[in-house]
Amino acid sequence: MIVAGLGFTTTAETTSLRAAYDKAAAGQVVAALATVADKAGHPALEALAADLALPLHLIPAAELAGQRTLTCSPQSRASYGTGSVAEAAALIAAGPGARLITPRQISDDRRATCALAIGDKT
Hints:
alpha/beta
C-alpha cells in the first residue's frame, strides 16, 4: 500500500496541498493520505481527501516524534520532533517496515509538503 503523507501550514490552501501531492505522487497509485492529528478538520485537507476520494489517517503527534526521515525541516523538528511531518506520517500510516519511495516534495508556495511511503499495511 502506498500512503501519501502531508505536512502543511495553517495558511495552506487546497491548491498548496494538491501541488505537493501531484509532485510526490506522479505515476503512483496512492491508497491513502496521512498527516498529524492536530491538522484534523483543516478545510484544505478535507477538500483534498474528498477530491482524491482517499481515506485519511490522522497520526498522533507523539507518534511522529523520533521518526527518522530523509529530509529535515527545522519547523517540523521544533514542532513535532521529526524532520518531516509528511515523511513521518507516510511511514507510520504505511505500517511496520515501510520505506519512503518519494521524499518530501514542497509546493511552490512552500505551504505544503508531501512524501510517499510503501508498506504492507492494509
